[in-house]
Design goal:
The chain has helices at residues 39-45, 94-97, 138-141, 144-157, 172-184, 196-204, 216-222, 237-246, 269-274, 287-296, 315-324, and strands at 2-6, 12-16, 27-36, 61-69, 81-84, 87-88, 108-109, 121-125, 129-131, 164-168, 188-193, 209-212, 227-232, 247-255, 278-281, 306-311, 331-335. The protein is an alpha/beta fold and 340 residues long. The chain folds into two domains: 2-131 and 301-335, Alpha-Beta Complex (Quinone Oxidoreductase, Chain A, domain 1); 150-281, 3-Layer(aba) Sandwich (Rossmann fold), CATH 3.40.50.720. The protein binds zinc ion (2 copies). One zinc ion binds next to loops.
Length: 340
C-alpha cells in the first residue's frame, strides 16, 4: 500500500510499504478515507517538536471503512463507517479507572507511537472505533478528533451561562471551542488571533468580537481583567501571558496549546497568585468525550473549517501550505482512497 513516511523535519516520502495485518484478534483494519493534519504534526515537520521519532507514518485525525475484523471483534463489522479515537489506553491504571484515559500511564497515540493514518490502510483496536451516524460523512468524521480536543477543554473549563469568554488562537481547536461554548449560552465570545482570514471565520461563526494581535490599539482597548475565562489555543508563551493579563480576578485560564518555546520574559506568574487564578491544562480527551464529539459533529458547522483537501500523493504540498500560509488555510485533510 502507499503511505506517507516522515523521516524527520520536512522530509516526507510517499512509499510502498506492506499493508498492515491485524495486530491481534481485537483489532480491525480500516481503509482510510480522510485524515486531517494536526498542528502538532506541522510542528514536527517544521522541526520544532521532538515528540515524534522518525521514521514514522503520522496521522491521528481520521475516518475510514472497516475492511477486516479480528476473530474477537463483535461490535464492528466489515463495511462499517467509523471515526477512530487515536488514544490507546491500558484500561487498568488508576487514570484509566477514573475515566481519564488521556492521562493513562501507558498512553499511546496512533500516528505517534504506532503507524498512523497517512496511509491507505491502518490497523486499530476495535474499541477505539466509533461508528459514524448516517448524516455524518467521512470528511466530517475526520474532524471528530479536533472536536474532541475542544470538548475536553470546555469540560475542563466548566463555563457558566452568562460568562464572558476569550479564545486566543482561532485555529480549528480554538474555533471548535467557540462553537461549543456558544451552545451553553455564555454572555460573549471574543476571539483574538493573528490571521485575518481565520478571524473572519470566527466572525462568521458568531464571535461577538474579533481582535487582531497585529492591531496594538485594539488590544490595548480591551484593558485588563475583562474575561471570566480565557482559552489559550495558540500554543505560545506570549498567549499565556496575554491570558493572565486579560482574565478577571478569580478567573480561569485553560491552556490547550502546546508551547514549544521557553518564555523570553516574565509571563506574569505573580498575577496567578495575586489574582487567585485557576490555571488548567487540557490534553487530549477521554474515550467518552470522543464518542460525544462524533455525535456532536452534525450539530455544528465543523465542515466549514475544511479549506483544502489534498490527495495522498500531494501530502508534501499540504504541509507546505500549512507551513507557509501563502493563502487562507484552516483545516487541511488528506484524501487517502481516491487513488491519486
Ligand atoms: Zn492532534
Ligand atoms: Zn491506563
Amino acid at each position: 500500500m502507499r503511505a506517507i513516511v516522515w523521516y524527520g523535519g520536512s522530509d516526507l516520502r510517499i512509499e510502498d510499504i506492506p499493508k498492515p495485518k491485524l495486530r491481534n484478534e481485537r483489532h480491525v483494519v480500516l481503509r482510510v478515507k480522510f485524515c486531517g493534519i494536526c498542528g502538532s504534526e506541522l510542528q514536527a515537520y517544521k522541526g520544532c517538536s521532538t515528540r515524534r521519532v522518525p521514521p514514522l507514518v503520522m496521522g491521528h485525525e481520521f475516518s475510514g471503512e472497516v475492511v477486516e475484523t479480528g476473530s474477537d471483534v463483535k461490535e464492528i463489522e466489515i463495511g462499517d463507517r467509523v471515526a477512530v479515537n487515536p488514544i490507546i489506553s491500558c484500561g487498568r491504571c488508576l487514570a484509566c479507572l477514573r475515566g481519564r484515559q488521556n492521562l493513562c500511564l501507558d498512553m499511546k497515540l496512533i500516528g505517534m507511537h504506532m503507524p498512523g493514518a497517512f496511509a491507505e490502510y491502518v490497523s486499530v483496536p476495535a474499541e477505539n472505533c466509533v461508528k459514524l451516524p448516517s448524516e455524518v460523512d467521512f470528511e466530517e468524521g475526520a474532524l471528530a478528533e479536533p472536536l474532541a480536543n475542544a470538548l475536553h477543554a470546555v469540560n475542563r473549563a466548566r463555563p457558566s451561562i452568562g460568562d464572558s469568554v476569550a479564545i486566543l488562537g482561532p485555529g480549528p481547536i480554538g474555533l471548535s471551542i467557540m462553537l461549543l461554548v456558544q451552545t451553553i449560552g455564555v454572555e460573549s465570545v471574543t476571539v483574538i488571533g493573528r490571521s485575518e482570514d481565520r478571524l473572519k471565520i470566527a466572525e462568521k461563526f458568531g464571535a461577538n468580537e474579533v481582535i487582531s494581535i497585529k492591531n496594538e490599539k485594539e488590544l490595548m482597548r480591551i484593558g485588563e481583567e475583562v474575561f471570566d475565562m480565557v482559552f489559550e489555543a495558540a500554543g505560545s508563551w506570549q498567549a499565556v501571558k496575554t491570558a493572565i493579563k486579560f482574565v478577571k480576578k478569580g478567573g480561569r485560564i485553560i491552556i490547550v496549546g502546546l508551547s514549544h518555546l521557553k518564555p523570553m520574559e516574565d509571563i506574569g506568574l505573580m498575577s496567578i497568585t495575586t489574582k487567585e487564578l485557576d490555571v488548567l491544562g487540557s490534553y487530549g480527551y477521554t474515550a467518552f468525550e470522543f464518542q460525544k464529539a462524533v455525535r456532536l459533529l452534525s450539530r455544528l458547522p465543523m465542515k466549514e473549517m475544511i479549506t483544502h483537501i489534498f490527495p495522498l500523493s500531494r501530502a508534501k504540498d499540504a504541509f507546505e501550505l500549512l507551513s507557509q500560509r501563502k493563502e487562507p488555510v484552516l483545516k487541511v485533510l488528506l484524501e487517502l482512497d481516491n487513488g491519486l
